[in-house]
Design a protein that fits this description.
24% helix
C-alpha cells in the first residue's frame, strides 16, 4: 500500500476494512484489522465513545497504523490489502460486429511477471495491458465477491473454457449496452443482473474477503451487481463524540487503565493490582489516591465490556456547551475551552428571539470511531448521536481488536435556542401540517427498506439541521474556510434542549487558527444573510414545491437541493437528509413557516 494514497482519517471515514481502492495498476481491498500492525497503532482514550460501541470498553480505540517515513530506513506498511477483484479486461478494444469488445480474463490467466495477458508464442506472441473489471457481486449484508462470469454467460448451464469477452455498443459504459460474451456463442446482457430483485448472480455465499477465505458466514440474500467504484459500494458506520471537561473518577481511571494496558495485562486479582501499584511508580502516580478495589472494579468492567452508557451522547454534550464554566482559567492541556458571548455583542437589536445564547468554543477535541460498514444502503447514528445496537453491519476483524479511530482538534461556535420559543413554534398548526407531510414520506422510505424501527427526528431537528447548513455555507463564503473542512453537530435532545455546533477541526494538535471564534461577534449578520439567501432558491419554484411523498424525489428532505442547502457529505452528520428550508426560514410555497424569522431592529 503506497503511503501517499491514504491519510489516517480516510481509513476511518472512507477506506476502512472491506473498502475497495484503485491503485495505479490494480484494484485492492483493505484487509481487516487482524492484518493491521498493532505496534504502529496509537491508543486513543475517550470513555464516553467506547461505551457506544459493542464490547467497546474491552476493545478500546486506536488510530490506524502510522507510517514513519525516514531516509535512513525503509518502513514496511502497517496494514495489508488484498487483490480484488480477480477479473480483468484488456485496455485495448477491438471492433466486432458493430461493437467494441475486450478480453475478459481472471488473474490466473495473466503473466505473473508482467501482469499482462500474453497470447501466442514466438513471433505470434502478443501482450495486452489489462485493468480490473469494474463489476463485482455483493449483497445488502456487506458480503462481496467476484462474479462467476462463465456461469453467468452460460445461464447456470455447463460452463466451457472458451475465451470470454466484454462487449460494449456505446462509449458511455451504459449497462443497457454492455454484454458478456463467450467464444462458444453464448451471450448475455449485463442488464440482467441489475436491480435489487435480480436473481441472475445467484444466492449469496456470504464471502468476506477482507477477513480471509475461511471466514464466510451464512446469508439468506441474493447477490446484486455492484460497480466497485460507485458511491454505494462502501458506507462506513461511524460514531462521534466530543471530549468534555467534566470527567468522573471512573472516566479518569478508564483513561489511565487504557494508557497502562500492557502493564496490567497479567493482573487478574486485587492482590495482583496492589503488587503492580507497589512496583510500578508511574502507575501509582497515575492512579493517585483512588481506592485499589474501585480501580480493580473499573478494570474488570473495561475488560468485560459491560460498562453501560448513561445519558445519550448529545445530551451530555449540550449540557456543557450551553452552560460554559465561568471564572475558571483554562488548563493548558484542556480538551474543551468555551466562553459565552454577551448578547449585545452579536445581536444588539434583539432580532433573533429564537436564539438564546452564543458560545464560542476556543478549543475542542472530537473523536470519531469506525464501527463497521454497509453496502448499497447507509446507516447513521440517530439524532441523539447513538447507534442502534441491533443494526447489522459488517465486522472489521475476526478477533476483538481496537476500533479504528481518529482524534481531531479545533474550534467552533455553539448557538443555543430558547426552548419556550421552539416549543411554541413546534405546536403551530401550519408546522404540524408540514411535519405530517415529511413524516409520511419518511415512513414510506422506511417501508421500502425494511427499517421499521427507524424514527423521524422531528420538526425541530429538521429546522436546526437546515439552519446549520445555511450557516456553514455562509461562513465558507465569508471567511474563506473550504466548505468541506467545516462540520456540524445538531442538538434536539429528549430533555428539550436545542442547539447547533459549527466547528472546524484537524488531526494536528494545533487545530485551527481562530477563524471561527473571530466570527462570534458577527454571527447575527451571518444569520441574517443566510436567511435572506435561503428564502429563494435558484431552482424555485421546483425546490420550494417539492413533495417528498411523490415517487422519484428525495423522500428524506423537503425544500432542499444543491442550489440551496445541500453540502459536501463530510460537512453533514446525516448525509444531507432531513433538511427543509420551509421549516428553517420559510419558502415561496410556505412563507412565514420558518423557525428563524428575524424581527424588527
Amino acid at each position: 500500500m503506497s503511503k501517499d494514497l491514504l491519510r489516517l482519517s480516510q481509513l476511518v471515514t472512507s477506506f476502512g476494512p472491506g473498502a475497495m481502492l484503485d491503485l495505479p495498476r490494480r484494484s485492492v481491498m483493505i484487509a481487516g484489522l487482524d492484518r493491521w500492525e498493532p505496534a504502529k497503532r496509537r491508543t486513543i482514550v475517550e470513555p464516553r465513545l467506547v461505551l457506544r460501541l459493542p464490547d467497546g470498553p474491552r476493545r478500546g480505540l486506536a488510530t490506524p497504523p502510522v507510517h514513519e517515513e525516514s531516509p535512513y530506513r525503509r518502513d514496511h506498511p502497517g496494514l495489508q490489502a488484498i487483490l480484488f477483484p480477480n477479473w480483468f479486461v484488456t485496455t485495448r478494444a477491438e471492433p466486432f460486429e458493430g461493437r467494441q469488445r475486450r478480453r475478459l480474463v481472471c488473474f490466473a490467466e495473466l503473466d505473473q511477471r508482467s501482469g499482462q495477458l500474453v497470447e501466442g508464442t514466438g513471433r505470434d506472441r502478443k501482450s495486452s495491458t489489462v485493468a480490473p473489471i469494474r463489476f463485482v457481486a455483493a449483497c445488502e449484508h456487506g458480503h462481496v465477491q467476484d462474479i462467476d462470469w462463465r456461469r453467468y454467460v452460460h445461464r447456470d448451464g455447463a460452463p466451457c473454457s472458451a475465451p470470454l469477452w466484454l462487449e460494449e455498443a456505446g462509449a458511455t459504459g451504459d449497462l443497457a449496452e454492455t454484454w458478456i460474451a463467450c467464444e462458444c456463442g453464448n451471450r448475455r446482457p449485463l442488464y440482467d443482473a441489475l436491480g435489487p430483485r435480480s436473481r441472475a448472480l445467484g444466492p449469496c455465499p456470504g464471502r468476506r474477503p477482507w477477513l480471509g477465505p475461511q471466514h464466510n458466514e451464512s446469508c439468506d440474500l441474493h447477490l446484486r451487481l455492484l460497480v466497485r467504484t460507485a458511491s454505494n459500494a462502501y458506507f462506513p458506520v461511524t460514531v462521534t463524540a466530543l471530549s468534555l471537561p467534566t470527567e468522573t473518577e471512573a472516566d479518569r481511571l478508564e483513561r489511565v487503565l487504557a494508557e497502562f494496558e500492557r502493564d496490567l495485562a497479567e493482573v487478574t486479582s486485587l492482590d495482583h493490582l496492589r503488587a503492580a501499584l507497589r512496583f510500578n511508580a508511574r502507575l501509582q502516580d497515575a492512579i493517585g489516591d483512588a481506592d485499589p478495589a474501585f480501580v480493580f472494579e473499573v478494570l474488570q468492567r473495561r475488560r468485560s465490556g459491560t460498562s453501560a452508557p448513561g445519558k445519550a451522547v448529545k445530551v451530555e454534550e449540550i449540557q456543557v456547551l450551553a452552560d460554559p464554566p465561568k471564572g475558571r482559567p483554562a488548563d493548558a492541556g484542556a480538551v474543551f475551552v468555551s466562553e459565552a458571548v454577551p448578547r449585545d455583542r452579536w445581536d444588539p437589536g434583539g432580532r433573533f428571539s429564537a436564539i438564546e445564547r452564543l458560545v464560542v468554543v476556543h478549543r475542542l477535541r472530537v473523536v470519531t470511531a469506525l464501527r463497521g460498514f454497509t453496502r448499497f444502503d447507509f446507516l447513521t447514528a440517530d439524532k441523539d448521536g447513538e447507534l442502534d445496537p441491533e443494526i447489522r453491519v459488517q465486522e472489521l476483524s475476526v478477533d476483538p481488536l481496537p476500533y479504528p479511530a481518529i482524534e481531531q482538534w479545533g474550534e467552533g461556535l455553539f448557538l443555543g435556542f430558547d426552548a419556550a420559543v421552539v416549543k411554541a413554534w413546534r405546536e403551530r398548526a401550519d408546522v404540524q401540517k408540514r411535519v405530517v407531510q415529511l413524516s409520511e414520506a419518511f415512513s414510506q422510505w422506511c417501508r421500502e427498506r425494511g427499517r421499521e424501527k427507524a424514527q423521524f427526528p422531528g420538526p425541530v431537528y429538521v429546522a436546526l439541521h437546515t439552519l446549520a447548513h445555511l450557516l456553514l455555507a455562509e461562513i465558507a463564503l465569508d471567511c474563506g474556510y473550504p466548505l468541506a473542512s467545516l462540520r456540524e453537530r445538531v442538538y434536539a435532545t429528549p430533555d428539550e434542549r436545542f442547539g447547533i455546533l459549527l466547528y472546524a477541526a484537524s488531526t494536528d494538535v494545533g487545530g485551527t487558527l481562530g477563524g471561527l471564534v473571530a466570527l462570534g461577534s458577527r454571527i447575527g449578520e451571518l444569520l441574517e444573510r443566510a436567511a435572506e439567501r435561503a428564502a429563494i432558491c435558484a431552482h424555485d419554484p421546483v425546490c420550494a414545491e417539492h413533495d417528498p411523498g411523490r415517487g422519484g424525489g428525495h423522500r428524506l428532505a423537503g425544500a432542499a437541493c444543491h442550489g440551496c442547502v445541500l453540502l459536501p457529505e463530510p460537512c453533514c452528520e446525516m448525509r444531507n437528509d432531513f433538511l427543509d428550508r420551509a421549516l428553517a426560514v420559510g419558502t415561496l410555497a410556505h412563507p412565514g413557516l420558518g423557525l428563524l424569522r428575524p424581527g424588527p431592529v
